[in-house]
């Protein structure tokens, strides 16, 4: 099937041709027709499936064919959980809409609000925004939703994870009830199903890939070692395997900075991207990484959300994420749009419960390897029996039950016999209710603390103090969950 067969108009087809997109991806094939017909959509589509074009193309077409925007008006609103994803979606709209006469803008916290207000004056066909900053703009009377036709929730699960529920409710209350709503989510926990029930009318369901399944095209491997050996092991692998573009995930901002420091000392072109860095510095690091001026980009989960790096060959998990679903998002940075990719996780004994939880979510027991000279003195206990793979010469099998995988050979991974209904998160590392994380300053405080009907904005100026105050009053006791305050070493 071609894009033309989906009845897209010429200016859009021209943009797709210039981008080198030959055929629609499965999610695009399913979504474009339904969105053009004005239907609501519930899409289980993880990042890398081409979901953005799946909603952007038909919306651009509808906006082009139907009317014009009035001053301060917004015709299509896309909500995204992080600045990076918002920026990414905005860029996609601009790319796909290069030949249609529409106005686009993006708005998120952490940068001055005035240019965003100025941009809204003439009205916008498409506004991509994070919920906190959007509420800030609304409160200042910078926009109206009288003309709103379509609401898109992108990565809805992540928005709830990050504690945006109250912000979202406040936004929904301001929208006209007669509208088209599209909901995209990588996972469908009960909270998302409830949200979908409230927002969607007779939605078309789109399933681009099974929920919680890791990208099929990504070859995965666990390398077991000791915690303290991880930086040296990474450096060793970088050199031995000649990695020239690698996105690395570390758990904390402090961990990111430490690893970047070690790499830079060794002459590696490395840069960091995390919540303590100002937005322009984050974007600059990303651009330099995409241009291959930076060889290793080290990131935290929140900062890396929405990163789209064309043809990224490799993701390395220097530390495992504390939330198992984040693993799916991490490895989804590679193997995008059907391309091949590789994801390597360095795992120490402390992380075995995290590994077990991740394997439950992705329904695979990952193959393991140990690298001579970096063997784990503290053995990483077995989590199950991965599929048999030939043992490559010169590599050591790590544990009794974990045969090594052969480089270049895609491991055949067995599904686990009984997938749990709920991800088995490590009991010692729960995500706090409301998911308060001041590293994303445009986000509001946890929903439980928000009085009924109140609009809390933590974006832009005052965000840090609001975040600190909320952190003081709302954080769980330290022994009940991870600290989410702005001290060094907290997850970002
Ligand atoms: P997304 O899942 O929307 O983040 O898209 C993942 C990547 O796939 C992006 O780099 C897109 O530019 C690319 N992409 C989207 N649709 C297509 C297509 N039909 N053909 C080739 N690449 C695509």
TrEMBL record:
Residues 376-492 are annotated as: Disordered. GO terms for molecular function: ATP binding; hydrolase activity; nucleic acid binding; RNA helicase activity. Residues 32-206 form the Helicase ATP-binding domain. A motif (Q motif) lies at residues 1-29. Residues 399-413, 453-474 have a biased composition (Low complexity). Keywords: ATP-binding, Helicase, Hydrolase, Nucleotide-binding. Residues 217-379 form the Helicase C-terminal domain. Gene3D superfamilies: P-loop containing nucleotide triphosphate hydrolases (3.40.50.300). CDD domains: DEADc (cd00268), SF2_C_DEAD (cd18787). GO terms for cellular component: cytosol. Residues 483-492 have a biased composition (Basic residues). Residues 1-29 form the DEAD-box RNA helicase Q domain. It comes from the Bacteria. Signal peptide: none annotated. Pfam families: DEAD, Helicase_C. Belongs to the DEAD box helicase family. This is DEAD/DEAH box helicase. It comes from Pseudoduganella dura.
């Amino acid at each position: 099937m071609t894009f033309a067969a989906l009845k897209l108009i010429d200016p859009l087809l021209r943009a797709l041709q210039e981008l080198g997109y030959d055929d629609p991806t499965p999610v695009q094939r399913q979504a474009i027709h339904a969105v053009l017909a004005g239907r609501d959509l519930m899409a289980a589509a993880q990042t890398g499936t081409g979901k953005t074009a799946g909603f952007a193309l038909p919306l651009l077409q509808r906006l082009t064919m139907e009317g014009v925007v009035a001053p301060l008006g917004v015709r299509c609103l896309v909500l995204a959980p992080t600045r990076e994803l918002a920026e990414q979606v905005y860029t996609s709209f601009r790319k796909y809409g290069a030949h249609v006469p529409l106005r686009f803008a993006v708005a998120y916290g952490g940068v001055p609000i005035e240019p965003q207000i100025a941009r809204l004056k003439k009205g916008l066909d498409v506004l991509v925004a994070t919920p906190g900053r959007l509420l800030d703009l609304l409160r200042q009377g910078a926009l109206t939703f009288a003309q709103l036709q379509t609401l898109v929730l992108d990565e809805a699960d992540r928005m709830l994870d990050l504690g945006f529920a109250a912000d979202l409710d406040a936004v929904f209350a301001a929208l006209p009830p007669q509208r088209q709503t599209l909901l995209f989510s990588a996972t469908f926990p009960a909270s998302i199903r409830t949200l979908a029930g409230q927002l969607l009318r007779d939605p078309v369901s789109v399933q681009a890939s099974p929920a919680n399944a890791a990208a099929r095209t990504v070859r995965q491997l666990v390398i077991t070692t000791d915690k303290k050996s991880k930086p040296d092991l990474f450096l060793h692998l970088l050199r031995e395997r000649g990695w020239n573009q690698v996105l690395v995930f570390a758990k904390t901002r402090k961990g990111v900075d430490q690893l970047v420091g070690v790499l830079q000392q060794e002459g590696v072109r490395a840069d960091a991207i995390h919540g303590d860095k100002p937005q322009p510095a984050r974007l600059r690091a990303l651009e330099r990484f995409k241009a291959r001026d930076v060889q290793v980009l080290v990131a935290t989960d929140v900062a890396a959300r929405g990163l789209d790096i064309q043809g990224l060959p490799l993701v390395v998990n220097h530390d495992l994420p504390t939330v198992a679903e984040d693993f799916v998002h991490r490895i989804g940075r590679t193997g995008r749009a059907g391309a091949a990719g590789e994801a390597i996780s360095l795992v120490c004994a402390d992380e075995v419960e995290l590994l077990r939880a991740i394997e439950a979510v992705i329904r695979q027991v990952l193959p393991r390897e140990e690298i001579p000279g970096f063997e784990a003195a503290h053995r990483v206990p077995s989590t199950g029996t991965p599929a048999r793979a030939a043992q490559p010469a010169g590599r050591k099998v790590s544990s009794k039950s974990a045969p090594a995988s052969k480089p270049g050979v895609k491991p055949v991974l067995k599904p686990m016999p009984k997938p749990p209904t709920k991800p088995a998160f490590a009991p010692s590392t729960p995500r706090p209710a409301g998911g308060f994380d001041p590293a994303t300053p445009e986000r509001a405080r946890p929903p439980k603390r928000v009085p009924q009907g109140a609009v809390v904005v933590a974006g832009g100026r005052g965000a840090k103090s609001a975040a600190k105050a909320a952190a003081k009053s709302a954080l769980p006791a330290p022994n009940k969950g991870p600290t989410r305050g702005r001290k060094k070493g907290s997850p970002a």
